[in-house]
Specification:
mainly alpha, elongated
Length: 63
Amino acid sequence: MAKRRPSMHEMLEKKEKRPGKVDDLEKDDFRALNKAAFQVFGPVILGAVLILALVILIFTLIF
């Protein structure tokens, strides 16, 4: 018998935490999380700053 795929409700419901389980970060987890955040948000912030600079440049050239 083939396993059925979980429904959307089953995927989104909160999972029960096992009693006694401790969620500890390892030594380099915080550094890895920071690196991933900068890889995602760095280009987004850079793009927003460049668009803002372009708008300011165009505005100053027109007026």
